[in-house]
Amino acid sequence: GLELEPGGDREETVRRLTALPGIGPWTAGYVAMRALGDPDVFLPTDLAVRRGAAALGLPTDPKNLDAYADRWRPWRSYAVIRLWRAA
């Protein structure tokens, strides 16, 4: 079965989750961030992330925002939380 434990293999978990009907990249990324405790997940299509980016004067287009977020590696999950709060 699928194990959702802190420190679990993100790539394997995302692969298995997105193979399920109705589970896309956002949901799989959110699970990796929250359940696995992965510190380096970025959700550039999340509306609140994009609104937070706008509030902070950052790019809001998902592709450009994702590229901008590369500078936050390996801590992009914390950037997501900060952007949510800024929204």
TrEMBL record:
One of its GO terms (biological process) is DNA alkylation repair. The keyword DNA repair applies. InterPro entries: Alkylbase_DNA_Glycosylase/TA, DNA_glycosylase, HhH_base_excis_C. One of its GO terms (molecular function) is alkylated DNA binding. GO terms for cellular component: cytoplasm; protein-DNA complex. Keywords: DNA damage, DNA repair. This is AraC family transcriptional regulator.
